[in-house]
Amino acid sequence: MKRTLSFLFAILVASSLLAADLPQLLQKAKDQFRLAAYNEALATLDQLEAESQKEGREKDRAALAPVLAFYRGACLASMDRPAEAQGQFEAFLAFQPNAALDPAVYSKKVIASLENARRTLTARKQMPEQTGSLAMAYRAFPRPRSEEQVSLGEEWADGPVRFLMTPEERRAFTRLADTVSRSEYVTAFWKRRDPKPETSENEFRDEYEKRVAFADSRFTQGETAGSLTDRGMVFILLGPPTYAGQKPLTSGEDTNDKAALFAYRPADVKVASLPGGTTTDRTRRIDKVTGPGTRMTDAAKNWREVWHYRREVLPKGIPYHQVDFEFVTKEGYGENVLQRETQVLDTLEKAKSLLKQSAA
To answer: Please, is 216 exposed, middle or buried when counting C-beta atoms within 10 Å of its C-beta (0-12, 13-18, 19+)?
Structure first.
């Protein structure tokens, strides 16, 4: 797998997903890195990230996240800044856990720094509170730049901020007719949630914007921004899970949502069982929706992703020792669909309530 990175970066540069100016900036940073102009390369990477953060470039942002982390780590390692480099390489390995470097291309410092990050991640797997690759990637994820501003059009309330808004706040915002009044409203919205109004920083808003940016970079599905997906909603409300895992849905699994593991729903079975026609006809109808071939067995297209939240990472006031969020992907059912069980819904409602109380 020593050519994994070269192949990945070549695909990214050639990809039609990247806006016209992004491949040039990426190539510039790579050339600067090869010429040992590490400070210049870091500055170009910052410029590349800033360009990818512009509106409408969510897919570019997601594609570039591991590349930015890798080259920043490589530059920092080459500059004898191993601690900073390790954080970047940990973030990179969250995206590409099996990546290997060609010693003919990368220096011993870079390779050693990457392997140190890999060993650190492996060691952390023995520590339950730190096993989550999402949590580690989030810790290393850069804070969104202050100049990045969200649109203040009517659609603002339909974005990820809707997870924080009270019904009254939403109604008030929809009544505003111009950009100036919306801007004033948004300023007041965040000021009400500032835990330390005496300081120049708003820690609540900073954390929210970082979670949104991370969700957009990791959970985007097709044309849907990552922060607006089920996984994005959970991440924004609760932050990174203690640890997460994924496994295929296989024939015979029927835990929790049994209907989600079949090609037909219980309603289809009920309709097939209704009187009508001969006994043979009815038997054939029932067999069609319950017999062989009705189970979803393609593991490549059907899987379950589980996020485990231990009590210590859940917001204060949520009484459970652990809450598991399951996201099911199944052909004909959806992609990463949250399984809305009672404990899951109760936890989300309590989290929303706690966030809304901070605005009171």
So the answer is: buried
Predicted pLDDT at 268: 58
Q: For 318-357, how does the pLDDT look when each residue is reduced to its tens digit (9 = 90+)?
A: 888 889 999 999 888 899 999 998 899 999 999 988 876 6
165 touches 157 (CB < 8 A)? yes
In a domain, 94, yes or no: yes
Q: Which residue has the tokens 């290393």?
A: 140
Same domain assignment for residues 39 and 187: no
Q: H or E stretch including 52?
A: helix 38-52
Residue 141 has a CB neighbour count (10 Å cut-off) of 20
Residues of the chain with pLDDT under 50: 1-4, 7, 10-19, 126-131, 147-148, 251-264, 292-299
Count of domains for the chain: 3
Q: Residue 140's pLDDT is what?
A: 84
Q: Is position 70 within any domain?
A: yes
Contact 88, 69 (CB under 8 A): yes
Closest CA to 160 of 357, 355, 358, 360: 355
Does residue 147 fall inside a structural domain?
no
- CA 357-172-166 angle, 5° bins: 25
DSSP code string of 119-143: HHHHHHTTSGGG--HHHHHHHHSPP
Q: Are residues 172 and 306 in the same domain?
A: yes
- The predicted structure's pLDDT at residue 18: 46
- Full domain range(s) for residue 167: 154-247+300-357
Euclidean distance between CA atoms 165 and 167, whole angstroms: 6
- Is residue 138 in a domain? no
Q: Are residues 192 and 335 in the same domain?
A: yes
Residue 129 · residue 30 · CB < 8 Å: no
Q: Determine the Cα–Cα distance for residues 65 and 141; give it in Å rounded to an integer.
A: 9
User: Are 48 and 195 members of one domain?
Assistant: no
Same domain as 166, residue 40: no
